[in-house]
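Project standup — Tuesday

K.O.: blocked on the structure for the chain from last sprint. Re-posting the sequence here as requested.
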Amino acid sequence: MMAVSIIDEFAETAMDFGLVLYIVLSIAASLKLLLSPYLRVTSLGWIVAIWTLPYVGALTFMLTVVRVRKVDHDQAINHLIAAHAGAPCDHGAVERLGIEYKFLPYFHMEDSQLLKDDEFVDAVCQSIESATSRVWMTTFILSGSVKERILQCLIDAHERGVDVCLLIDRVGSGLLLKPRNNPFELDLPFDVSIFHSSLFRSLLFVEKRLHSKIVLADNEAFIGSHNLRDEVLLENNDSVHNISLRFTGSVVTQLEAVFIDLWKLNAGVDLDSYAGAREWNDEGHDEGHDEGHDEHEKKSNLHSESTVGHKAARIVFSDPIERSYNYSAYLGDLFYSATDRICIWMPYIIPSQAMRRSIIAASKMGLDVRVLFPKKSDSALVDNAHALVLKEFVENGVACALSEGVFDHSKILVIDDVTIIGSTNLDFRSLYRNYEANIEVHDQEFSHTVLAMFDQAFDAADFVDSHEVGQLSHMRNQLTSLIAALY
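H.V.: unblocked you, prediction finished:
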Protein backbone atom coordinates (compact mmCIF):
# COMPACT_ATOMS: atom_id res chain seq x y z
CA MET A 1 0.00 0.00 0.00
CA MET A 2 2.85 2.36 0.82
CA ALA A 3 4.51 1.57 -2.53
CA VAL A 4 1.29 2.37 -4.37
CA SER A 5 1.03 5.65 -2.46
CA ILE A 6 4.61 6.61 -3.37
CA ILE A 7 4.01 5.75 -7.03
CA ASP A 8 0.78 7.79 -7.08
CA GLU A 9 2.55 10.74 -5.47
CA PHE A 10 5.39 10.52 -7.97
CA ALA A 11 2.91 10.32 -10.88
CA GLU A 12 1.06 13.42 -9.62
CA THR A 13 4.32 15.33 -9.23
CA ALA A 14 5.42 14.32 -12.71
CA MET A 15 2.06 15.39 -14.11
CA ASP A 16 2.33 18.78 -12.41
CA PHE A 17 5.87 19.24 -13.68
CA GLY A 18 4.92 18.24 -17.22
CA LEU A 19 1.93 20.56 -17.18
CA VAL A 20 3.96 23.53 -15.95
CA LEU A 21 6.68 22.81 -18.54
CA TYR A 22 4.10 22.60 -21.34
CA ILE A 23 2.46 25.90 -20.32
CA VAL A 24 5.80 27.71 -19.99
CA LEU A 25 7.05 26.46 -23.36
CA SER A 26 3.70 27.24 -25.00
CA ILE A 27 3.77 30.82 -23.70
CA ALA A 28 7.39 31.25 -24.75
CA ALA A 29 6.72 29.85 -28.23
CA SER A 30 3.63 32.02 -28.64
CA LEU A 31 5.51 35.18 -27.66
CA LYS A 32 8.38 34.25 -29.94
CA LEU A 33 6.05 33.78 -32.88
CA LEU A 34 4.08 36.96 -32.19
CA LEU A 35 7.27 39.02 -31.99
CA SER A 36 8.64 37.58 -35.21
CA PRO A 37 8.57 40.07 -38.13
CA TYR A 38 7.92 37.28 -40.63
CA LEU A 39 5.12 34.84 -41.45
CA ARG A 40 2.44 36.42 -39.29
CA VAL A 41 -0.37 34.23 -40.66
CA THR A 42 1.71 31.10 -40.16
CA SER A 43 2.60 32.28 -36.68
CA LEU A 44 -1.06 32.59 -35.74
CA GLY A 45 -1.66 29.10 -37.10
CA TRP A 46 1.09 27.66 -34.90
CA ILE A 47 -0.29 29.48 -31.85
CA VAL A 48 -3.72 27.98 -32.45
CA ALA A 49 -2.16 24.53 -32.84
CA ILE A 50 -0.10 24.82 -29.65
CA TRP A 51 -3.11 25.69 -27.50
CA THR A 52 -5.73 23.46 -29.13
CA LEU A 53 -3.85 20.18 -29.69
CA PRO A 54 -4.49 18.87 -26.14
CA TYR A 55 -8.21 19.50 -26.55
CA VAL A 56 -8.27 17.92 -30.01
CA GLY A 57 -6.59 14.85 -28.54
CA ALA A 58 -9.16 14.63 -25.75
CA LEU A 59 -12.05 14.99 -28.20
CA THR A 60 -10.58 12.30 -30.48
CA PHE A 61 -10.27 9.93 -27.55
CA MET A 62 -13.88 10.58 -26.54
CA LEU A 63 -15.16 10.03 -30.07
CA THR A 64 -13.27 6.74 -30.31
CA VAL A 65 -14.53 5.42 -26.98
CA VAL A 66 -18.11 6.54 -27.66
CA ARG A 67 -18.06 4.82 -31.05
CA VAL A 68 -16.92 1.46 -29.64
CA ARG A 69 -19.36 1.58 -26.74
CA LYS A 70 -22.20 2.64 -29.05
CA VAL A 71 -21.77 -0.39 -31.33
CA ASP A 72 -21.68 -2.83 -28.40
CA HIS A 73 -24.63 -1.21 -26.70
CA ASP A 74 -26.73 -1.09 -29.88
CA GLN A 75 -26.29 -4.83 -30.31
CA ALA A 76 -27.39 -5.49 -26.73
CA ILE A 77 -30.40 -3.17 -26.98
CA ASN A 78 -31.54 -4.68 -30.29
CA HIS A 79 -31.31 -8.15 -28.75
CA LEU A 80 -33.46 -7.09 -25.78
CA ILE A 81 -36.12 -5.47 -27.96
CA ALA A 82 -36.29 -8.43 -30.33
CA ALA A 83 -36.44 -10.96 -27.51
CA HIS A 84 -39.32 -9.28 -25.73
CA ALA A 85 -41.28 -7.93 -28.71
CA GLY A 86 -41.74 -4.52 -27.14
CA ALA A 87 -43.33 -5.76 -23.91
CA PRO A 88 -42.16 -4.31 -20.57
CA CYS A 89 -40.29 -6.90 -18.57
CA ASP A 90 -37.48 -7.41 -16.09
CA HIS A 91 -34.26 -7.68 -18.09
CA GLY A 92 -32.14 -8.55 -15.09
CA ALA A 93 -28.77 -7.10 -14.15
CA VAL A 94 -26.65 -5.08 -16.54
CA GLU A 95 -23.77 -7.49 -15.90
CA ARG A 96 -25.09 -9.37 -18.92
CA LEU A 97 -23.47 -6.64 -21.00
CA GLY A 98 -20.12 -7.12 -19.29
CA ILE A 99 -20.41 -4.10 -16.96
CA GLU A 100 -19.83 -4.50 -13.24
CA TYR A 101 -20.33 -2.20 -10.28
CA LYS A 102 -20.73 -2.46 -6.54
CA PHE A 103 -22.24 -0.16 -3.95
CA LEU A 104 -23.03 -0.18 -0.28
CA PRO A 105 -25.78 -2.56 0.89
CA TYR A 106 -29.29 -1.37 1.73
CA PHE A 107 -29.78 0.22 5.14
CA HIS A 108 -32.73 2.25 6.42
CA MET A 109 -33.94 5.81 6.08
CA GLU A 110 -36.31 6.86 8.84
CA ASP A 111 -37.52 10.46 9.18
CA SER A 112 -37.20 12.40 5.92
CA GLN A 113 -38.10 15.82 4.55
CA LEU A 114 -37.83 17.15 1.00
CA LEU A 115 -36.45 20.68 1.07
CA LYS A 116 -37.04 23.17 -1.75
CA ASP A 117 -35.12 26.35 -2.45
CA ASP A 118 -34.77 28.61 0.63
CA GLU A 119 -35.91 25.86 3.01
CA PHE A 120 -32.57 24.11 2.66
CA VAL A 121 -30.34 26.87 4.06
CA ASP A 122 -32.66 27.45 7.01
CA ALA A 123 -32.84 23.72 7.77
CA VAL A 124 -29.05 23.28 7.58
CA CYS A 125 -28.45 26.23 9.92
CA GLN A 126 -31.00 24.84 12.39
CA SER A 127 -29.28 21.46 12.39
CA ILE A 128 -25.85 23.05 12.91
CA GLU A 129 -27.19 25.16 15.76
CA SER A 130 -28.65 22.12 17.51
CA ALA A 131 -25.65 19.81 16.90
CA THR A 132 -23.77 18.65 19.98
CA SER A 133 -21.09 16.32 18.61
CA ARG A 134 -20.19 16.79 14.95
CA VAL A 135 -20.90 18.82 11.81
CA TRP A 136 -19.20 17.60 8.62
CA MET A 137 -19.90 19.29 5.30
CA THR A 138 -18.87 19.12 1.65
CA THR A 139 -20.01 21.57 -1.01
CA PHE A 140 -19.10 22.50 -4.54
CA ILE A 141 -19.87 26.22 -4.11
CA LEU A 142 -19.74 28.30 -0.93
CA SER A 143 -20.18 32.01 -1.55
CA GLY A 144 -22.09 35.21 -0.83
CA SER A 145 -24.28 35.94 2.15
CA VAL A 146 -25.09 32.23 2.50
CA LYS A 147 -21.37 31.57 3.02
CA GLU A 148 -21.21 34.18 5.78
CA ARG A 149 -24.23 32.67 7.52
CA ILE A 150 -22.94 29.11 7.27
CA LEU A 151 -19.45 30.02 8.47
CA GLN A 152 -20.85 31.85 11.49
CA CYS A 153 -23.00 28.84 12.39
CA LEU A 154 -19.93 26.59 12.11
CA ILE A 155 -17.84 28.94 14.26
CA ASP A 156 -20.56 28.96 16.94
CA ALA A 157 -20.78 25.15 16.80
CA HIS A 158 -17.01 24.81 17.19
CA GLU A 159 -17.08 27.09 20.23
CA ARG A 160 -19.68 24.75 21.78
CA GLY A 161 -17.20 21.88 21.42
CA VAL A 162 -18.65 20.39 18.22
CA ASP A 163 -16.27 18.61 15.82
CA VAL A 164 -16.48 20.73 12.62
CA CYS A 165 -14.98 19.76 9.26
CA LEU A 166 -15.62 21.68 6.03
CA LEU A 167 -14.45 20.41 2.63
CA ILE A 168 -15.01 22.67 -0.39
CA ASP A 169 -14.11 22.45 -4.06
CA ARG A 170 -11.38 24.77 -5.31
CA VAL A 171 -12.90 25.36 -8.76
CA GLY A 172 -16.56 25.64 -7.79
CA SER A 173 -15.97 28.12 -4.99
CA GLY A 174 -13.56 30.24 -7.04
CA LEU A 175 -10.56 29.62 -4.78
CA LEU A 176 -7.95 28.83 -7.42
CA LEU A 177 -5.24 31.03 -5.92
CA LYS A 178 -6.13 30.63 -2.24
CA PRO A 179 -4.09 28.61 0.30
CA ARG A 180 -5.39 25.09 0.67
CA ASN A 181 -6.00 25.06 4.43
CA ASN A 182 -7.04 28.71 4.75
CA PRO A 183 -9.05 29.36 1.57
CA PHE A 184 -11.06 32.30 2.89
CA GLU A 185 -7.98 33.86 4.50
CA LEU A 186 -9.92 34.10 7.74
CA ASP A 187 -8.89 32.93 11.19
CA LEU A 188 -11.41 30.09 11.24
CA PRO A 189 -11.13 27.93 14.37
CA PHE A 190 -12.37 24.69 12.77
CA ASP A 191 -10.88 22.36 10.13
CA VAL A 192 -11.44 23.59 6.57
CA SER A 193 -9.74 22.33 3.44
CA ILE A 194 -9.86 22.89 -0.32
CA PHE A 195 -10.46 19.72 -2.32
CA HIS A 196 -7.57 19.52 -4.79
CA SER A 197 -3.95 18.72 -4.18
CA SER A 198 -2.88 20.41 -7.42
CA LEU A 199 -3.56 24.02 -8.37
CA PHE A 200 -2.30 23.44 -11.91
CA ARG A 201 -4.52 20.45 -12.67
CA SER A 202 -7.48 22.30 -11.16
CA LEU A 203 -7.22 24.77 -14.02
CA LEU A 204 -7.69 22.05 -16.67
CA PHE A 205 -10.92 20.40 -17.71
CA VAL A 206 -9.50 16.93 -17.01
CA GLU A 207 -9.20 17.45 -13.23
CA LYS A 208 -11.57 15.75 -10.84
CA ARG A 209 -13.90 17.96 -8.83
CA LEU A 210 -15.73 17.57 -5.55
CA HIS A 211 -19.32 18.09 -6.67
CA SER A 212 -20.94 16.38 -3.65
CA LYS A 213 -23.34 18.30 -1.41
CA ILE A 214 -23.26 16.59 2.00
CA VAL A 215 -24.14 17.79 5.48
CA LEU A 216 -23.81 15.54 8.55
CA ALA A 217 -25.02 17.05 11.83
CA ASP A 218 -24.94 14.47 14.63
CA ASN A 219 -27.24 11.65 13.43
CA GLU A 220 -29.01 13.77 10.79
CA ALA A 221 -27.94 14.18 7.16
CA PHE A 222 -28.64 16.27 4.07
CA ILE A 223 -27.97 15.37 0.47
CA GLY A 224 -29.14 16.86 -2.82
CA SER A 225 -28.54 19.57 -5.40
CA HIS A 226 -28.23 22.71 -3.24
CA ASN A 227 -24.98 24.65 -3.41
CA LEU A 228 -24.39 27.05 -0.52
CA ARG A 229 -24.70 30.26 -2.51
CA ASP A 230 -27.08 33.20 -2.77
CA GLU A 231 -28.67 31.79 -5.94
CA VAL A 232 -30.54 29.19 -3.87
CA LEU A 233 -32.51 32.03 -2.26
CA LEU A 234 -35.66 32.88 -4.23
CA GLU A 235 -35.36 36.55 -3.24
CA ASN A 236 -32.21 36.70 -5.36
CA ASN A 237 -32.61 38.01 -8.92
CA ASP A 238 -30.54 35.08 -10.28
CA SER A 239 -32.21 32.43 -8.15
CA VAL A 240 -32.33 28.75 -9.17
CA HIS A 241 -34.66 25.97 -8.05
CA ASN A 242 -33.22 23.08 -6.01
CA ILE A 243 -34.48 20.06 -4.11
CA SER A 244 -32.54 18.25 -1.38
CA LEU A 245 -33.38 15.61 1.21
CA ARG A 246 -33.02 15.78 4.98
CA PHE A 247 -33.09 12.37 6.66
CA THR A 248 -32.16 10.18 9.61
CA GLY A 249 -31.66 6.45 10.05
CA SER A 250 -28.86 3.95 9.73
CA VAL A 251 -28.17 5.04 6.12
CA VAL A 252 -26.58 8.16 7.65
CA THR A 253 -23.69 5.88 8.63
CA GLN A 254 -23.08 5.13 4.95
CA LEU A 255 -22.92 8.81 4.08
CA GLU A 256 -20.54 9.28 6.99
CA ALA A 257 -18.27 6.61 5.50
CA VAL A 258 -18.23 8.49 2.18
CA PHE A 259 -17.25 11.74 3.94
CA ILE A 260 -14.51 9.99 5.93
CA ASP A 261 -13.04 8.63 2.68
CA LEU A 262 -13.15 12.06 1.02
CA TRP A 263 -11.50 13.73 4.02
CA LYS A 264 -8.80 11.06 4.15
CA LEU A 265 -8.18 11.37 0.42
CA ASN A 266 -7.84 15.15 0.60
CA ALA A 267 -6.42 15.95 4.05
CA GLY A 268 -4.70 12.64 4.82
CA VAL A 269 -6.41 12.45 8.22
CA ASP A 270 -8.62 9.67 9.57
CA LEU A 271 -11.86 10.88 11.17
CA ASP A 272 -13.56 8.94 13.94
CA SER A 273 -17.06 7.62 13.25
CA TYR A 274 -19.82 9.37 15.12
CA ALA A 275 -20.82 7.29 18.14
CA GLY A 276 -24.50 8.21 17.76
CA ALA A 277 -24.82 6.51 14.39
CA ARG A 278 -25.66 2.82 14.09
CA GLU A 279 -22.72 0.44 13.87
CA TRP A 280 -22.40 -2.01 10.99
CA ASN A 281 -22.05 -5.66 11.80
CA ASP A 282 -19.67 -8.04 10.06
CA GLU A 283 -22.18 -8.74 7.28
CA GLY A 284 -22.48 -5.06 6.39
CA HIS A 285 -25.95 -4.63 7.88
CA ASP A 286 -26.99 -2.16 10.51
CA GLU A 287 -27.24 -3.53 14.03
CA GLY A 288 -30.76 -3.97 15.29
CA HIS A 289 -32.36 -4.62 11.87
CA ASP A 290 -32.59 -7.68 9.61
CA GLU A 291 -30.30 -9.79 11.77
CA GLY A 292 -29.64 -13.11 10.11
CA HIS A 293 -30.59 -11.87 6.62
CA ASP A 294 -28.04 -11.76 3.87
CA GLU A 295 -27.95 -9.01 1.27
CA HIS A 296 -29.95 -11.02 -1.27
CA GLU A 297 -32.75 -11.58 1.24
CA LYS A 298 -32.64 -7.93 2.15
CA LYS A 299 -33.14 -6.82 -1.45
CA SER A 300 -36.05 -9.23 -1.89
CA ASN A 301 -37.84 -7.80 1.15
CA LEU A 302 -37.59 -4.10 0.39
CA HIS A 303 -41.33 -3.51 0.27
CA SER A 304 -42.03 -5.32 3.53
CA GLU A 305 -39.35 -3.25 5.27
CA SER A 306 -41.05 -0.06 4.16
CA THR A 307 -44.36 -1.11 5.71
CA VAL A 308 -42.89 -1.22 9.22
CA GLY A 309 -41.74 2.40 9.20
CA HIS A 310 -38.31 2.02 7.60
CA LYS A 311 -37.55 2.96 4.00
CA ALA A 312 -34.83 0.85 2.38
CA ALA A 313 -32.05 3.17 1.24
CA ARG A 314 -28.37 3.29 0.43
CA ILE A 315 -25.76 5.82 -0.65
CA VAL A 316 -24.59 5.57 -4.27
CA PHE A 317 -21.72 7.66 -5.49
CA SER A 318 -19.36 8.42 -8.37
CA ASP A 319 -15.71 7.81 -7.64
CA PRO A 320 -13.28 8.48 -10.53
CA ILE A 321 -10.50 6.56 -8.76
CA GLU A 322 -12.40 3.43 -7.69
CA ARG A 323 -13.79 2.40 -11.06
CA SER A 324 -15.74 -0.46 -9.45
CA TYR A 325 -18.12 2.21 -8.15
CA ASN A 326 -19.45 2.89 -11.64
CA TYR A 327 -22.48 5.16 -11.39
CA SER A 328 -23.14 5.00 -15.12
CA ALA A 329 -23.35 1.19 -15.04
CA TYR A 330 -25.57 1.43 -11.97
CA LEU A 331 -28.02 3.69 -13.83
CA GLY A 332 -27.88 1.34 -16.80
CA ASP A 333 -28.94 -1.49 -14.50
CA LEU A 334 -31.92 0.52 -13.27
CA PHE A 335 -32.96 1.56 -16.79
CA TYR A 336 -32.79 -2.03 -18.05
CA SER A 337 -34.75 -3.48 -15.14
CA ALA A 338 -37.46 -0.79 -15.17
CA THR A 339 -40.97 -2.17 -15.69
CA ASP A 340 -43.17 0.90 -15.19
CA ARG A 341 -41.53 4.32 -15.43
CA ILE A 342 -38.36 6.34 -15.93
CA CYS A 343 -38.67 10.02 -14.97
CA ILE A 344 -35.61 12.24 -15.37
CA TRP A 345 -35.50 15.68 -13.70
CA MET A 346 -32.07 17.18 -14.29
CA PRO A 347 -30.43 20.53 -15.15
CA TYR A 348 -27.75 18.98 -17.39
CA ILE A 349 -28.86 16.04 -19.54
CA ILE A 350 -26.04 15.03 -21.89
CA PRO A 351 -25.88 11.25 -21.44
CA SER A 352 -23.66 8.97 -23.48
CA GLN A 353 -24.99 7.42 -26.65
CA ALA A 354 -25.30 4.12 -24.81
CA MET A 355 -27.41 5.62 -22.03
CA ARG A 356 -29.58 7.49 -24.53
CA ARG A 357 -30.36 4.26 -26.30
CA SER A 358 -31.28 2.48 -23.07
CA ILE A 359 -33.76 5.29 -22.29
CA ILE A 360 -35.18 5.18 -25.82
CA ALA A 361 -35.50 1.38 -25.65
CA ALA A 362 -37.53 1.65 -22.42
CA SER A 363 -39.90 4.09 -24.12
CA LYS A 364 -40.30 1.83 -27.16
CA MET A 365 -41.18 -1.07 -24.88
CA GLY A 366 -44.16 0.86 -23.50
CA LEU A 367 -42.83 2.31 -20.25
CA ASP A 368 -43.75 5.80 -19.02
CA VAL A 369 -40.53 7.62 -19.94
CA ARG A 370 -40.47 11.39 -19.40
CA VAL A 371 -37.55 13.81 -19.38
CA LEU A 372 -37.72 17.37 -18.03
CA PHE A 373 -35.12 19.73 -19.54
CA PRO A 374 -34.55 23.36 -18.57
CA LYS A 375 -35.62 25.63 -21.44
CA LYS A 376 -32.61 27.82 -20.69
CA SER A 377 -29.79 26.60 -18.47
CA ASP A 378 -26.90 28.61 -17.05
CA SER A 379 -24.68 27.72 -20.03
CA ALA A 380 -25.13 28.33 -23.77
CA LEU A 381 -22.95 25.26 -24.43
CA VAL A 382 -25.29 23.06 -22.41
CA ASP A 383 -28.35 24.50 -24.17
CA ASN A 384 -26.93 23.55 -27.56
CA ALA A 385 -25.96 20.10 -26.29
CA HIS A 386 -29.48 19.67 -24.88
CA ALA A 387 -30.90 20.43 -28.32
CA LEU A 388 -29.13 17.40 -29.76
CA VAL A 389 -30.32 15.06 -27.00
CA LEU A 390 -33.83 16.52 -27.15
CA LYS A 391 -34.01 15.93 -30.89
CA GLU A 392 -32.95 12.29 -30.55
CA PHE A 393 -35.37 11.62 -27.69
CA VAL A 394 -38.42 13.26 -29.28
CA GLU A 395 -37.85 11.62 -32.67
CA ASN A 396 -37.81 8.24 -30.91
CA GLY A 397 -40.99 8.77 -28.91
CA VAL A 398 -39.60 9.86 -25.50
CA ALA A 399 -41.89 12.43 -23.85
CA CYS A 400 -39.86 15.62 -23.25
CA ALA A 401 -40.73 19.01 -21.81
CA LEU A 402 -38.90 22.30 -21.26
CA SER A 403 -39.28 24.06 -17.91
CA GLU A 404 -39.55 27.83 -18.22
CA GLY A 405 -38.86 30.61 -15.77
CA VAL A 406 -36.33 30.14 -12.98
CA PHE A 407 -33.54 27.68 -13.87
CA ASP A 408 -34.25 24.31 -12.24
CA HIS A 409 -31.09 22.80 -10.73
CA SER A 410 -32.83 19.77 -9.13
CA LYS A 411 -31.25 16.36 -9.75
CA ILE A 412 -33.83 13.59 -9.37
CA LEU A 413 -34.55 10.22 -10.98
CA VAL A 414 -37.67 8.13 -10.37
CA ILE A 415 -37.39 4.61 -11.80
CA ASP A 416 -40.35 2.43 -10.81
CA ASP A 417 -40.34 2.64 -7.00
CA VAL A 418 -36.69 3.72 -6.80
CA THR A 419 -35.95 7.41 -6.21
CA ILE A 420 -32.47 8.90 -6.53
CA ILE A 421 -31.71 12.36 -5.15
CA GLY A 422 -28.24 13.86 -5.07
CA SER A 423 -25.60 15.85 -6.88
CA THR A 424 -25.02 13.80 -10.06
CA ASN A 425 -26.02 15.15 -13.47
CA LEU A 426 -26.46 13.00 -16.56
CA ASP A 427 -23.30 14.26 -18.23
CA PHE A 428 -19.75 13.09 -18.79
CA ARG A 429 -18.18 15.10 -15.96
CA SER A 430 -20.63 13.94 -13.28
CA LEU A 431 -20.64 10.32 -14.40
CA TYR A 432 -16.91 9.87 -14.92
CA ARG A 433 -14.83 12.74 -13.51
CA ASN A 434 -16.46 14.14 -10.36
CA TYR A 435 -16.85 12.93 -6.80
CA GLU A 436 -20.63 12.79 -6.44
CA ALA A 437 -22.99 11.58 -3.72
CA ASN A 438 -26.62 10.46 -4.02
CA ILE A 439 -29.16 8.57 -1.95
CA GLU A 440 -31.27 5.78 -3.44
CA VAL A 441 -34.59 5.26 -1.66
CA HIS A 442 -36.46 2.08 -2.51
CA ASP A 443 -39.96 2.78 -1.25
CA GLN A 444 -43.27 3.03 -3.08
CA GLU A 445 -44.79 5.74 -0.90
CA PHE A 446 -41.68 7.91 -1.09
CA SER A 447 -41.40 7.50 -4.88
CA HIS A 448 -45.05 8.53 -5.29
CA THR A 449 -44.41 11.66 -3.22
CA VAL A 450 -41.48 12.64 -5.41
CA LEU A 451 -43.36 11.60 -8.56
CA ALA A 452 -46.19 13.99 -7.66
CA MET A 453 -43.65 16.83 -7.52
CA PHE A 454 -42.24 15.75 -10.87
CA ASP A 455 -45.71 15.53 -12.43
CA GLN A 456 -46.48 19.07 -11.30
CA ALA A 457 -43.23 20.42 -12.77
CA PHE A 458 -43.60 18.41 -16.01
CA ASP A 459 -47.22 19.44 -16.56
CA ALA A 460 -46.31 23.11 -16.06
CA ALA A 461 -43.49 22.89 -18.64
CA ASP A 462 -43.75 23.18 -22.43
CA PHE A 463 -44.23 19.80 -24.11
CA VAL A 464 -41.93 19.32 -27.13
CA ASP A 465 -43.18 17.65 -30.32
CA SER A 466 -41.21 16.31 -33.29
CA HIS A 467 -41.95 19.37 -35.46
CA GLU A 468 -40.23 21.71 -33.01
CA VAL A 469 -36.94 19.79 -33.05
CA GLY A 470 -36.80 19.17 -36.80
CA GLN A 471 -34.83 22.30 -37.65
CA LEU A 472 -32.00 21.95 -35.12
CA SER A 473 -28.44 22.09 -36.42
CA HIS A 474 -27.02 18.59 -35.94
CA MET A 475 -23.37 19.46 -36.59
CA ARG A 476 -23.37 22.50 -34.29
CA ASN A 477 -25.00 20.57 -31.48
CA GLN A 478 -22.65 17.59 -31.91
CA LEU A 479 -19.66 19.88 -31.44
CA THR A 480 -21.07 21.77 -28.47
CA SER A 481 -22.16 18.57 -26.76
CA LEU A 482 -18.56 17.33 -26.88
CA ILE A 483 -17.21 20.58 -25.45
CA ALA A 484 -19.94 20.72 -22.80
CA ALA A 485 -19.08 17.18 -21.76
CA LEU A 486 -15.52 18.24 -20.99
CA TYR A 487 -16.60 21.09 -18.77
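K.O.: great, moving the ticket to review. The mean pLDDT is 75. The first helix runs from residue 2 to 35.
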